[in-house]
Amino acid sequence: MGQPESVPSADDPLRLDADEADAIAELFNIGMGEAAAGLSSMLGEEVHLSVPSFAVSTRARITSEVGDELDGEQPVCAVRGAFTGPFTGEAMLIFPERGTLALVGRLVPVDPAAEAPGEMEQDALTEIGNIILNGCLASLSNLIGGELSGAVPGYGTGAPAAVIGSGTDPVLFVRIDMALAAGDASGHALFLLDIASLDAFREAIRRALAGL
Q1: Which of 10, 19, 62, 114 lies most in the core, judged by the most C-beta atoms within 10 Å?
Q2: What pTM was estimated for this model as a whole?
Q3: CA-CA distance, 186 to 209, in Å (whole number)?
Q4: Mapped to the 3 state alphabet, what secondary structure does 121-189 carry?
């Protein structure tokens, strides 16, 4: 399980205590696990998930860290959408282009010579993103007892900085790595929560802890 990138003093408003840290990991572990199970059934193949990690970070730093694992400046494919509710933010599913082609190839015919996803492949990835992201948000809604509404996810492509962003304002960053059992497609599910709604997020965690 991840820890915040720095350990602020006890009265720092961005500090998360041990119970909150454990709850974040547990909530997203449950939410993503249910969504991944649905995707596994759809693909006919197991989807492996990492333990959720989190940090108080910035989009610029996230771009650097995640981008390095996704071949740096090479284009990535992303499905992303904002969500609102007791807390707000943005959810995104990101795969490198080759991994995207391998992933959606389980669902639609893919030209072996293709270097980048075409319209059909983009639509397939968008559907996968919808299953994963909105499925996780729906599960989180049940766990926290408050509705999280996700916008219809949209497809985008570009360098990691263009997809994730380069802002320097703090965000609470939750990351889950994903990979197909065959090993030919791996990517990340990212949740960037607005720090402005951190108090509401804490309250949602308390409600979820009471129900777990």
Answers
A1: 62
A2: 0.86
A3: 31
A4: HHHHHHHHHHHHHHHHHHHHHHHHCCCCEECCCEEEEECHHHHHCCCCCEEEEEEEEEEECCCCCEEEE
In order of 67, 115, 158, the CA distances from 75 in angstroms are 10, 11, 5
CA–CA separation, 203 vs 55, rounded Å?
18
Share of the chain residues as helix, strand and coil, in percent rounded to the nearest 5: 45, 25, 30
Residue 7 has pLDDT above 50, yes or no: no
Residues in the chain: 212
Helix or strand run (H / E) with residue 92: strand 89-96
Distance CA 146, CA 123 (A): 30
Amino acid in position 89: G
- Using alpha carbons, list the distances in angstroms from residue 82 to 18, 79, 90, 108, 191: 28, 11, 4, 27, 10
Reported as a single tens digit per residue, the pLDDT across 181-202 is: 988 899 999 999 988 877 888 8
Max mean pLDDT range (11-20, 60-69, 92-101):
92-101
Residue 115: DSSP 8-state: S
Burial 61-80 (b: 16+ CB within 10 A, else e): bbbbebbeebeeeebbbbbb
Nearest to 125 by CA among 116, 138, 112, 114: 116
Q: Which uninterrupted H or E stretch holds 78?
A: strand 76-84
